[in-house]
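Cross-check.
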Amino acid sequence: MQPTATVLVYSDNASTREQVRLATGRRPAADVPAVEFIECATLPAVLKELDRGGVDVCVLDGEATPIGGMGVCRQLKDEIFRCPPVLLLMGRPQDAWLATWSRAEAAVTLPVDPVEFADSLAALLRERLAVQA
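Predicted model, tokenized:
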């Protein structure tokens, strides 16, 4: 198992980014590596970090302004070669169809439920690390 996994968190709201960090803890599950976070509050920062490489999973806030995570996800899937899997944070469960449209691999609702979030993040990390192996 690699020593750490890198999770990019995009939200203009510092509280939402904190919810993600707290729900993840040091690692979302015992069988995945410890997590290091890259926090981004703007789309240019997200694109810069993804250009650097090394991101294992992206967590995007669908409620972010001025550019929501659903639109960002769709853009990343169109523009980034081998885009990391995306976990989308949605404002309402009824927005699940938009998460599908955006091509996110997983979605959970806000506020972040720690158990649901950690399970979803761990599943994406397992898939990503298996592909990289």
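The CA atoms of residues 59 and 99 lie 12 Å apart. The first helix runs from residue 14 to 24. Passed to J.P. for a second look.
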